[in-house]
Design goal:
Elements lengths: L1 H4 L1 H21 L5 E4 L19 E4 L5 H7 L2 H41 L6 H6 L6 H14 L10 H20 L3 H33 L4 H58 L1
Antiparallel strand pairs: 1-2
Helix pairs in contact: 2-4, 3-9, 4-8, 4-9, 6-7, 6-9, 7-9, 8-9
Length: 275
């Protein structure tokens, strides 16, 4: 699969996408609570002048992402890493597949404009790029007419050319669908991975209550914040994956319609050349 072959590029994408994002999330944490001491009255002459200034005390925010990463165990960190990996893979595949679809659409427009104007089929094929899907289909179709001999000679030429073009078009379609199974997997499993992190955070909250013997907010604030973050992350990963999967499937159908039309036209040309 394309996603597995380009694992190095995926890691680079992880650094470019998530490092700034996590940094921003940590930076934009809610302002810490400020406990301000009571300012003494200016009429209280028993207090020294230095005591008239207000004192401030910074209280750590137990609900933030930074606190979860600092105080979370390996299970919560592992869950967060899995969700991060899923999200990076989703956006990476989306960008790559959109680029491939755009390139194939552009090649289709070029074929419609210039491929059929040449006097020779071989010259028309040579005008296409080597990595072009349309050139791949055209070469397979032309080869099917040249190598139609031996045992294959007993097969009707029309059927043989049709099978060769269908195989080539199916190969192109399979290439266009690379990575879509990953998007489907992420869309269906990411909410449950986030739910697992939520359950783990609630478990820590109940454990803290049992140890302390009382359900005070300072005992459960951290685990509850961890649970809420995991739930949000699971949804934030799953929703783009589902939308990307449906969008790419629809665009693949439009692209393959042009490819199939080219195969049909080429089929007619190949048979006419043999008559």
């Amino acid at each position: 699969m394309l996603f597995i072959k380009c694992i190095q590029k995926l890691l680079i994408a992880a650094a470019l996408i998530w490092v700034p994002l996590v940094t921003a999330m940590v930076t934009l944490q809610p302002a810490p609570a400020i406990a301000q001491a009571t300012e003494p009255s200016k009429f209280d002459e028993t207090k020294p002048a230095e005591a008239t200034g207000a004192t401030q005390e910074t209280v750590d925010n137990p609900y933030g992402l930074k606190a979860m990463w600092q105080h979370g165990d390996w299970v919560s960190k592992g869950t967060l890493f899995i969700l991060t990996f899923m999200s990076i893979g989703t956006w990476y595949i989306l960008v790559i597949k959109l680029f491939e679809q755009f390139r194939l659409m552009r090649e289709g427009n070029e074929v419609s404009a210039s491929f059929w104007t040449s006097g020779s089929l071989q010259k028309s094929i040579e005008t296409l790029k080597n990595e072009s899907a349309y050139r791949f289909i055209a070469e397979k179709g032309l080869d099917s007419t040249v190598h139609h001999e031996g045992l294959l000679g007993d097969v009707d030429l029309d059927s043989w050319v049709t099978k060769a073009l269908n195989r080539a078009a199916n190969n192109v379609q399979a290439r266009m669908q690379d990575g879509l199974s990953f998007l489907a997997t992420v869309g269906s499993t990411a909410p449950f991975v986030g739910l697992f992190g939520t359950v783990w955070g609630i478990y820590h909250a109940l454990t803290a209550i049992g140890i302390a013997g009382q359900a005070s907010i300072d005992k459960v604030a951290g685990p509850v914040g961890e649970a809420l973050i995991m739930t949000a992350f699971g949804l934030a990963v799953a929703v783009p994956a589902v939308l990307a999967y449906n969008w790419l499937i629809r665009r693949n159908k439009l692209v393959m319609e042009n490819v199939r039309a080219f195969s049909d036209d080429l089929h007619s040309v190949l048979l006419s050349k043999k008559q």
